[in-house]
């Protein structure tokens, strides 16, 4: 599972425009095993992203996220690390209009049981 958090001034960004880049977190059954940062200029940053935890994302950015098959968890405020831990702890709300295209993780999916995976 790869979690992306847009970053601006070391905080979780409200929108995707004007961000410094994305902090990525990879987990293994709810435990962060890898983290890395990709500057905004980096192309293909969304590749392999399963979930996006962010601030109050505008409608057009929500639609783009859904079209890419990325589960959206908006309205978070805090540091990127706090965002990833809140996601893994199941304490961030998922956008109910945003669905998983194809889980691929099946029963070992990190979203399973957290209301995020369409295969729950």
Notes on the protein architecture:
There is one protein chain. A hairpin with a 2-residue loop joins strand 3 and strand 4. The two termini are 16 Å apart. The chain is globular, with a radius of gyration of 13 Å. Helices cover 15% and strands 27% of the residues. Strands 1, 2, 3, 4, 5 and 6 form a six-stranded mixed sheet that branches. The longest helix is centred in the middle third of the chain and has 9 residues. The chain is α/β, with parallel strands linked by helices.
Task: Give a short summary of the structure.
The protein is of the alpha/beta class and about 120 residues long. The protein has helices at about 60-65, 80-90; strands at about 1-10, 10, 20-30, 30-40, 50-55, 70-75.
Q: Any idea what the shape is?
A: globular
Which series of helices and strands comes N to C?
EEEEEHEH
The Cα radius of gyration reads 13 Å
Query: How many helical elements?
Result: 2
Strand content: 25-35%
Low-pLDDT runs: 101-120
SS elements, strand count: 6
What is the arithmetic mean of pLDDT? 78
Distance between the termini: 16 Å
Largest sheet: 6 strands, mixed
Class of secondary structure makeup: alpha/beta
Helix content: 10-25%
